[in-house]
Amino acid sequence: MGRKSLKEVRQLEIIKTFYKVAKKEGYENTSIAKIAKVMDINPSLVSHYFETKEDLTYALIDHILERYLLIYTIKNEEAVTLADLQKTIEMLFSKKWNLLFDDGLFYTFYALAFREKKIKAKYKTILDSLRLALASMIERCNEMQLTNVPAPKAAADLIFVLVDGAYFYLSLENDKKAYAERLEYYKNKAYQILGMGHSFHSDRTLSS
Predict the structure, then answer these.
(1) Could you tell me which CATH number the domain at 61-207 has?
(2) Which run of H or E residues covers position 139?
(3) Phi/psi at 85 (nearest 5 deg)?
(4) Which CATH number fits the domain 6-51, given the four candidates 3.40.50.2300, 1.10.10.60, 3.40.50.10260, 3.90.550.10?
């Protein structure tokens, strides 16, 4: 890969600053002027790269996709191992995955998707890309006879239904022990969908 241009570097700096300011003060209270102040630059420089706050929002959502897809970074895409698949499931149901993007901003943008078609399309791209990447990994494991999942795309979809529902529900949970137990429970359900049994704890974690 070639080096990023100065424009790309500057745009990424602005996007990251936008994220930090919006995370701290809320999306509605974030403006180009505030972003420029934090970066100690003239607001016109921010506007040079992103004319409006909406343009910045679209760019940040694209950045989310790039960050989320990092979980699929494996050493050899042509020779996926069972460990690669397990590592992906462990990542999906982990604090690290949940912290990739602030919950408050994620759901703020998600709500905007119901009013703005462009944001809706971008969110669909994110969710479709994540599902397709997992389905592809399952299909490769099937081909290598490491797994025997009858419908990889349906399995990937179900796993992300678990992921999406889990993190929305768990964002309301303040008890750390209950959070960890519930997340482990959902993860084990994902392993069952793949026919891989449970991970480290049993269903009794929640039923006891």
Answers:
(1) 1.10.357
(2) helix 117-143
(3) -65, -45
(4) 1.10.10.60
Task: Kindly report, residue by residue over 97-152, the tens digit of the pLDDT.
Answer: 777 778 888 888 888 889 999 989 988 888 898 899 899 999 999 999 999 999 99
Rounded CA-CA distance 108/202 in Å is 35
Asked if 198 and 191 count as a contact pair (C-beta separation under 8 A), the reply is: yes
Distances (CA, A) of 39 to 25, 34, 99, 119: 16, 9, 24, 26
DSSP letter assigned to residue 174: -
Place of tokens 């006891």: 208
Which one-letter amino acid corresponds to residue 145? Q
Q: Where are the domains of the chain?
A: 6-51, 61-207
| 3-class secondary structure, 54 | helix
Q: How far, in Å, CA of 37 to CA of 162, rounded? A: 40
Q: How far is CA 89 from the centre of its chain?
A: 13
